[in-house]
Each structure stands twice: as structure tokens, then as C-alpha cells.
Amino acid sequence: MRTVVHLSDLHFGRADAGIAAALLDDVCRLAPDVVAVSGDLTQRARRRQFRQARAFLHALPHPCVIVPGNHDVPLYNVLARFLDPLGGFRDAITSNLQPSYASGEVVVAGINTTRSLTISDGRVRPEDLAHVRRVFDAAGSDSVKVVVGHHPFDDAAHVELLTAFGTDVFLTGHLHVSYTGGTAARYTAAGRSAIVVEAGTAISTRMRGEANAFNVLRIERDRIDVATLRWQEDSKRFAEAAASAFERTEHGWRPAGVG
After folding, report:
1. How far is CA 128 from CA 32, 38, 99, 125, 153, in A?
2. Mean pLDDT of 64-84
3. DSSP class of residue 93?
């Protein structure tokens, strides 16, 4: 079994230092095989915020697969936004905008869904689709395959294509609301069913009706358990708030114990 911790929407510049410290303790205690961070490391892509994000990320267990979010693109520095939108991210965090991780049992491919032309929308580029296909083709059929991006995948055609490449799990953020379900229920997309896991905001004060949260995936060849851990203000700790289990079938993944 492999353990994947999924964090998103840290928003340094609007982060709660106490929650960040507790999160680090919890993630280290979980001893994950890999940590996936699905974007929005900063609030406004400022150097100080990237430095804070870098210090936090360096303290996490490694390896990490880290992708940018729309808040990691400058909003008010128009010149940087269009000429070098992810310059701060590359300088402070990583120059690799197509990160990946492979253990044999689990393969993770990260993609950059940010756009400089819009404030919050994202898109999947052809080069990112090609990257996912290369990584997954090299992994072999026995690996559980995970795609990490900041924006939820709203294009059913992209979902169909990525599942055709072998994607078993989609990890995203952006909405600051936790969600776990299957592509068959979420999209009108044909083909095999994969699992969609969205993370709430891990440590920021920019909440949308849900407390800070992160996800933990326990992955086996034919079973994936997903737990959402949510911040408990009274106890000042994260605790499991929701859990889902999925099993592999000939048509992809379905909730465990169904039919």
C-alpha cells in the first residue's frame, strides 16, 4: 500500500500560522510516500509569500509533486503576468512545471493549468496531455495512475482522454471545498470511470463555508481509500471528517461494496 497526502490552496499571505504548524506535524506523522500539492501556494504571487511557501514545502516529507495555481500568477504586476507569469513560482519553488513521481505501485503526473489571460480560469494544454501520456505509458499497466492539477477538470473531453491514458485518480483544488466521487457521476464522459478528489484550503483564512482540510489516499492495486481530514477549532487539530472507498472493476473504479 502507498500513502498519498493531498494538499491544496495554501495561500501564503493569508495563511494561519498555527494551522500550518499543526498540518506539518500531521503530515510528517502520516509518513506519506508522496505529497501532492495542487496549487495556489501564495495569495498574490509576491516574493515574500513564495519564500514562506518554500519554507513550508521544504519542511514536508518528500518527495513532493507541486503544481502552480492561478494565485501563483501575478495579478497586479501586468508586465510579469504576461511576460513571465510563473517566474516567481519557478524561482522559489521549482522550475519543473511538469513534475512526476513513480514508485512502481503509484505514478503521479503533475500539470500546469494556469492561464495568464484570465484571473481564475484554467485549461489543459496539449503539451500537458502529452506529458501525462508519456509518464503513464512508461509506468506499465499495474501502477495506479494519478493526475494532479490546480483547476477541476471541467472539460468532459479532457476527462475522457486522460482516463483513456490510464488515469485512475484526479487530484485538484481551487474551489476550497472538499469532494470525492467518480467521473461517471461528475461528468457526462464516456469510457472507464476514474476517481475525482478535490481538496479544500489546507491552511488559509480564505474559506468558503468549510473548515481547513486536506486529503489522505491509501492506494492499493485494486482498492483506494480516501479520507478528508478537517480542522477542528475546539481541539486545534485535524481529524477525519469523511471517508470513501473505491474498488477496481473492468469498467474502472466504483464505490466499494456497490453492486
Report:
1. 26, 15, 11, 5, 13
2. 86
3. T
Q: For position 67, which CATH number holds? A: 3.60.21.10
Q: What does the block give as the cell for 219? A: 492506494
Instruction: Report the alpha-carbon distance of residue 245 to residue 220 in Å, rounded.
Output: 11
Q: Which domain holds residue 71?
A: 2-255
Q: Please answer whether residues 200 and 172 qualify as being in contact, where contact means their C-beta atoms are separated by less than 8 angstroms.
A: no
Strands 195-198 and 213-219: unpaired
Alpha carbon distances (Å) from 83 to 92, 97, 120: 17, 16, 18
Q: Is 29 exposed, middle or buried (0-12, 13-18, 19+ CB in 10 A)?
A: exposed
Of 97, 62, 71, nearest to 10 by C-alpha is: 71
Mean pLDDT value of segment 12-19:
98
Could you read off the pLDDT of 81-137 as tens digits, one per residue?
Answer: 677 889 999 999 999 999 999 998 999 999 999 987 665 667 899 999 999 999 999
Please list the alpha-helical segments (H only) found in the chain: 17-30, 47-59, 78-83, 87-92, 126-139, 156-164, 183-186
